[in-house]
């Protein structure tokens, strides 16, 4: 199975690296970072770059696409090279997926019309603007389109894909191999549970 993760300027690193790590551990899976041109692409903090080792033209028909989110989503939504590649790839994929605001890029490519989808809680309602039906869930599967909520949810989505593509035992083995056993020090991971004032603080941290 060949997985393509498209990168664009100001993507959020964990959106891409989380699913990459899960899937790269799985037997028989190849993960390639792609972009308009081969070379480094800088994340939303401006301090980390990941090298795209293939261009869109080099990998026109991946089995799986995972679109990360980030503040660069706004520009990516008007990148016709990326959107055209997504439309073409989607015709042949087994799974077309996104993490966080990457769902907006899928929507801009016309892939979410009437589709239940999720994204980061801060921008969830806006999915109606790209034709989707917003759903406040960690991972949403609609046919072969799978969307994940904010940032860390990409790890859950990748494990979900492994279980559906291979088997539950493989997904469980990968989960154990990467010791994904979340036990956060605070129960503040969603607006519904966060203490008073935390939502405002969180919003101030989002570019």
Any overview of this molecule?
The protein is an alpha/beta fold and 207 residues long. The chain contains seven helices and eleven strands. Helix 1 packs parallel to helix 5 and helix 5 runs antiparallel to helix 6. It is globular. The model has no long low-confidence stretch (mean pLDDT 97).
What characteristics describe this protein?
single chain, 32% helix, 207 residues, 7 helices, alpha/beta, 20% strand, two-stranded antiparallel ribbon, seven-stranded mixed β-sheet
Task: Summarize the topology.
Layout: E1 2-6, H1 13-25, E2 30-35, E3 39-42, E4 49-52, E5 54-55, E6 64-67, H2 73-76, H3 80-90, E7 95-99, H4 102-108, E8 116-117, E9 133-134, E10 139-142, E11 145-148, H5 153-165, H6 168-177, H7 198-205
Parallel strand pairs: 1-2, 1-6, 2-5, 6-7, 7-11, 8-9
Antiparallel strand pairs: 3-4, 10-11
Structure summary:
The chain has 207 residues and is an alpha/beta fold. The chain is built from 7 helices and 11 strands. The strands form 3 sheets. It has a 7-stranded mixed β-sheet with strand order 5-2-1-6-7-11-10, with helices on both faces.
Strand order of the largest sheet: 5-2-1-6-7-11-10
| Overall average residue pLDDT | 97
Report Rg: 16 Å
Shape: globular
Number of discrete helical segments: 7
The end-to-end distance, rounded to whole angstroms, is: 34 Å
User: Major sheet, described briefly?
Assistant: 7 strands, mixed
Label the structural class. alpha/beta
Q: Oligomeric status of the shown chains? A: single chain
Helicity, as a percent range: 25-40%
User: What string gives the helices and strands in order?
Assistant: EHEEEEEHHEHEEEEHHH
How much of the polypeptide forms β-strand, as a percent range?
15-25%
- Count of individual beta strands: 11
Uncertain segments of ≥5 residues (pLDDT<50)? none
């Amino acid at each position: 199975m060949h997985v393509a993760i498209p990168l664009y300027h100001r993507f959020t690193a964990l959106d891409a690296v989380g699913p990459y790590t899960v899937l790269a551990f799985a037997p028989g899976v190849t993960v390639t970072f792609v972009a308009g041109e081969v070379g480094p692409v800088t994340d939303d903090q401006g301090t980390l770059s990941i090298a795209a080792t293939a261009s869109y033209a080099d990998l026109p028909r991946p089995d799986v696409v995972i679109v990360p989110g980030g503040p660069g989503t706004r520009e990516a939504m008007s990148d016709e090279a990326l959107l055209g590649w997504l439309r073409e790839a989607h015709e042949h994929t087994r799974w077309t997926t996104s993490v966080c605001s990457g769902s907006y890029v899928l929507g801009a490519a016309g892939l979410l019309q009437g589709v239940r989808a999720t994204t980061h809680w801060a921008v969830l309602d806006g999915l109606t603007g790209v034709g989707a039906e917003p759903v406040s869930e960690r991972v949403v599967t609609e046919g072969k389109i799978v969307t994940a909520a904010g940032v860390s949810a990409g790890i859950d989505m990748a494990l979900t894909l492994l279980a559906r593509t291979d088997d539950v035992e493989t997904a469980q083995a990968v989960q154990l191999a990467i010791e994904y056993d979340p036990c956060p020090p605070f129960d503040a991971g969603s607006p519904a549970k966060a203490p008073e004032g935390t939502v405002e603080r969180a919003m101030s941290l989002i570019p």
